[in-house]
Design brief:
- The chain is built from seven helices and seven strands, in the order αββαβααββαααββ.
- By secondary structure, it is of the alpha/beta class.
- The protein has two domains: 3-151, Ribonuclease H-like superfamily/Ribonuclease H (Nucleotidyltransferase, domain 5, 2-Layer Sandwich), CATH 3.30.420; 154-203, no CATH class.
- The strands form two sheets. The chain has a five-stranded mixed sheet with strand order 3-2-1-4-5.
- The longest helix is centred in the C-terminal third of the chain and has 24 residues, at 134-157.
- The radius of gyration is 18 Å and the shape is globular.
Amino acid sequence: MNAFEKLAEVSGYRCIAGVDEAGRGPLAGPVVAAAVIFPPDYTHTEINDSKKLTARKRDALYQVIARDAVAVGVGVVEADVIDRINILRASLQAMEEAVLDLSVAPDYILIDGLHNIAVPIPQKTLVKGDSLSVSIAAASIIAKVSRDRIMEMYHRQFPRYNFLQNKGYGTAEHRKILHEVGLCKIHRRSFHLKNHKTEQTVLDWSNEQPKRHA
């Protein structure tokens, strides 16, 4: 899982960041990205693509990554921005913010997916990178846990949507609630069908925004 980090080290890079995002698919809430820099030659047999791990395992590995990493950065782009610029651009913006949030500047970046990000740092994209690179896999875990924690706070603000269980994804339960009560302010309006009966219904039960935790 650290072959791409080793290749970068052979090329002379010493501070390599893995970058990934979580939350491209949900109907509500932000897209969250993370960047992780490990010490040279770092490996960990349990760090893997966050989607392959249980919530309990992700939480445990979150603590391991926070302890072992040289630096961890997080970027968050909220639903209103996603609606304005589209989810791909919002995901890339969150990745850029995560890199800029690092306390140590990387000299090379490994990115999950197909698209480079707009930072003046050499970078390589890897399709399914969260299964190929320990740094990207760690970033996927940090991003997923961070987003889940944000959605848990939104659950307390908007309990009728049960974000505690579905985290904003388009589950049958979530769509049923949307049909019954409409949208709240963290829903991504651009993600809904144009003929959805709740498209123009917006519930704003609180002006408070939850605090963000990495």
